[in-house]
Specification:
The chain is of the alpha/beta class. The chain has one domain: Phosphoglycerate mutase-like (Rossmann fold, 3-Layer(aba) Sandwich), CATH 3.40.50.1240. The chain is 38% helix and 18% strand. The chain has a 6-stranded mixed β-sheet with strand order 3-2-4-1-5-6, sandwiched between helices. Strand 2, helix 2 and strand 3 form a beta-alpha-beta unit. It starts with a strand and ends with a helix. GO terms for molecular function: phosphatase activity. It holds the Pfam family His_Phos_1. This is Histidine phosphatase family protein. InterPro entries: His_Pase_superF_clade-1, His_PPase_superfam, PGM_Phosphatase.
Length: 213
Amino acid sequence: MMNDTQFTLLRHGLPEQSGCLLGRTNPPLTAKGWQQMEHSSASLNFDVIICSPLIRCQAYAQHLAKNHDCELIVDDAWQELDFGHWDGNSIANLWEDPQQGYGKYWHAPFLHTPPNGESTSDLLNRITMSIECLSHDYRGKRLLIVSHSGVMRMALAWLLNSNQDGNPHLSRVQLEHAALLHFSTYIDDEDTLWPQLQGLINPSVCLNSLVDK
């Protein structure tokens, strides 16, 4: 429909410190990470770019906006979950130390919050509020949002109306660096928002399909 808002979420490429829990920790992309994002974004069409303020998203978003001469909005709503005291720590080390409580969080993220960090419910709320605002403000537009794995997983859980039980958005979804999530939103005459999932694309799946052919 003409007033559908088209959303494409692009996960950042491989960053430095990739073996660590990167929430608000702010390393740049590696050279491979830039290549991954260039490959995933090469055929995308968009009117506006929105990005997380973290450098692993913002640096490439600025590059893309300049090349396409389009508007760039840096928006805190699309930054990664704040992992508090865990942020920047090795994921392997967090798993190995039961006293950290990371295992409990992983298995039930809606019930457990990272120490001094952000709750999963708060992450869900800020993402869905932004989607609703963007759907009203950019009706009929194509939005590219450069963001993070945790954000994209939560958006996917919302699209599928997942109940807040367990961790299916974490354990059941493969989401690679530079993955793409496509969905649209439609606002009806009663101002009700209707989202529709259109696709999740992992770069390795696309590459394997090309090789198979």
